[in-house]
Amino acid sequence: MSSTKENTLLAQIETIAKGLSETFAPFCEVVVHDLKNPEHSILSIHNNLSGRQVGEPTTELGLARIESADFPNIVANYTNQFSDGRPVKSTSIGIKNENGEYVAALCLNLDMTLFRGMQSVLSQFIEVGNSPIKEHIEPNGSEAIRHRIDQYAATLAATPRTLKAEERKNLIEILRSEGLLDVKKSMETVAQHLGVSRASVYLYAKK
User: Fold this and answer.
1) Please, are residues 91 and 76 in contact by the beta-carbon 8 Å criterion?
2) How many CA atoms, within 13 angstroms, populate the side-chain half-sphere of residue 102?
3) Comparing C-alpha atoms, which of 67, 106, 112 is closest to residue 86?
4) DSSP 124-151
5) For the whole model, what pTM was predicted?
6) What pLDDT digit, counting tens, does each position of 40-96 carry?
7) Which is it for the CA torsion 161, 165, 166, 172, positive or negative?
């Protein structure tokens, strides 16, 4: 591949890096590496969280890519660490030229410090204590219906409110086959969780 084509490729990768960095700012560092120049591979670094600078060398992973064209194109969500000890979740994407050689890499480094703090706060928030008093403030079985709907949506990489009409019909059939439509006020619960009218749920159930 000519140097002109490689420069054009790197420019396109830089555009992608800028878009990713703006989308995930300020939690994700995005780095573009020129693997043809491993001693000074860092071409750009957006949302700088690691303290590295443009012109610094590539990492061990980058060197491994340079040595073998068979190295995986994508190494996703691996454990990493900044120099000050902050935990990081990283993803490294290798870019090949038309000859099948690695010439660049796009790397994302997500600072997990804030998210772990948020996880701790949320865990504390949702923690409940043991009480001798049992109280039910909703129709019996409603939670089971909602849980099943959430499970179904998750298998489609969706949320209950983003399900398409055909998917809702399939969901109703699943709820019926599992006996969940026999629960008191089941149609109302389904409608509320899907964000549709009860009339729509009854219509799905008839088809």
Assistant:
1) yes
2) 27
3) 112
4) HHH-----S-----S-TTHHHHHHHHHH
5) 0.62
6) 999 999 999 999 999 999 999 999 999 999 999 999 999 999 988 899 999 999 999
7) positive
